Amino acid sequence: MKIIAVAGTKNTGKTTLVTLLVSEMVKRGFKVGTVKHTHVKLDVHGKDTWKHRDAGAEIVVGAGGEETFFIINRNMGLEELLNKTEQLCKIDFLVLEGYKSGNYAKIFTSSINDPFSLAQVDVRQLNQESIEKLADLVEERSFGKLANLNCGDCGYENCREMALAMIKGQIEEDVCVMKKESDVILKVNGNRVPLNPFINKFFKNTFLGMINSLKIKEHGKPQKIELQIQNDEISDN
What we know:
alpha/beta, two-stranded antiparallel sheet, single chain, 7 helices
């Protein structure tokens, strides 16, 4: 899942640009999601879902027709939102409206100096050709979640420097060693934990060896193995 943010000052056409980008990316055959950052409450006072929350519910789920929505009584940070989005839906691109402080590729609708800027545009001047060029840029230079391990195996001092090189088109995302090692996925509390190549292979070989010793022929050849460990011990260490 690649991430692109549309940011800018108020009333400069951010939502318009998001919808234009989403339409173009969908037209190209990609699955696209969006996240809108706002400073106001999303649930409407007096509605049934608001009444549920007002009564003390920690999470409210609305389901009906062709849609489902979740309301949680806290503000999630960007990285947690990215993790939850990946869990809920498999998409190719996630378009953020806002989040100008994130270290991801951005298109600005106003003049802002930011090293992660792919472009600055005047939404009023956009036409189909310019939208297509922006979409090309998003395809070529946006990237997915950063591992933030700062391992240096990519040749850069840290993940931020690697991301800046991707923004400039100097390297592609597969230079990140963590991106290449994706056959083992470790999640803690629902959040994915990046694994370096050594740990990746260690986990894979160890668990495959254990699985092969079990009598699981009736389940067929193991292609996808899931192990869930419930840890109820609370520790401050």
